[in-house]
Amino acid sequence: MASKLRGLYAITPECTDGARLLADVEAALAGGCRIVQLRDKNSSMPERVARAHALRTLTRRFAARLLINDDLALAFLIDADGVHLGQSDGNLASARAILGPGKILGASCYADFAAAQAAQAAGADYLAFGAVYPSPTKPKAPLAAVNLFIQAKTTLTAASCAIGGITLANAPPLVVAGADLLAVITDLFNAPDITARAAAYQQLFEEAHA
User: Which CATH superfamily is domain 2-208 in?
Assistant: First the structure.
């Protein structure tokens, strides 16, 4: 599973307008993004379920993967492709057992390589390090050094994911260092042309393999 995880990882912003959210995610998918995470901390449960179902339909249309942030039950309800868990959001080994081998399990490892090693051992498919840059979403997050991605590439088998404050301008060193995924919220969904911005992120990975 991990070897197939590569490219732009679009994480949904907090948005009161569900229709706009869907349109923006569709624009990112049209630009080549193939991994989306529903991160919704503020909506009511009925609204969150409705958005998850709509995103499930949309991502399937683009043959893209949909992951749910911090909610195994919702991931099962809509048959999502997986779930992302923070360090305080549940036991990774238990989540892997519940998900089975065919679903994606992502884990937040912050700036802690030992946590990444433990997460891989518990069955995580990708390990998220961040914030790699100061982040408007999580301004108090400790910064993760770029060399974590070099270390992950050389010693771990799970995919590595960079998150936090990523822009098109500061992303290239992360890809060069070995980041398999770039998790982006603000720089993607606040872009004047979301489709073009998504395509530009995907191009970074194509150039790295050229």
Answer: Aldolase class I (3.20.20.70)
